[in-house]
Structure prediction request, 232 residues.
Amino acid sequence: MNQIVRIEVDESELARIQEETQQTLRLYQEAQAFKVNTRDDANDAFVRVNLMAPRIEELNALRKSESRKFKAIMAPYVGIIDKLTATVDTYKTKAREWRTKEALRIAELQRKEDEKRERKEAVIEGKIAAAEDAGDIHIAERLREKAANIPHKIIEVPKVEGAKVKHTWQVEVSDKMSFLKYVVTVEDTVLLAKLLSAIEFKMSPLVDIARTSEGKAEIPGLKFTQVEQLTR
Prediction:
């Protein structure tokens, strides 16, 4: 007969759990109310994230341990872990959303800055052409030097201290016909396999063609087959 082992948890520890549960709830509520409108706000958000991260790691380590005592009181600690994690995620999301908006704002500023530079270059190019037409080579050369020295202002997206930036690539098919025409020219078998796997073939429209043409439609790459089915 298995012996039942009772795990005793003293009242002081239960009180600490209760206190941490209440504190974690307050932290979560603060995160919900937190506003990120500036770079300083975003930096502050990640300062808070980094302050909470060690406690989450500590509790997760205990959660994975073989500590029988921890397992006996696991439920409230799991609640603390989940609430702390939600708090951290809230701060991260708000900081990232601000940075995304800021990146779009700065991209627009950069576009305007580039257009301003291009207008200046166009004006100088016009003067260079006029100088060359007039045979004034020296003025044309000086104008070329001036064009080359037009400052190119680069506006950078502000970094959020304590946060890591991960770059990923996304893709969309902007021209299906051009894409399909390219696919049929690919000779690299590995690349071809990837491209073909990206093409989603919906069979129902093709079945409709087979049915309405009674299999007589001649479409390269398609083979129509009549299949018998027993019906009542």
Q: What stands out?
A: Confidence is low (pLDDT under 50) at residues 1-7.
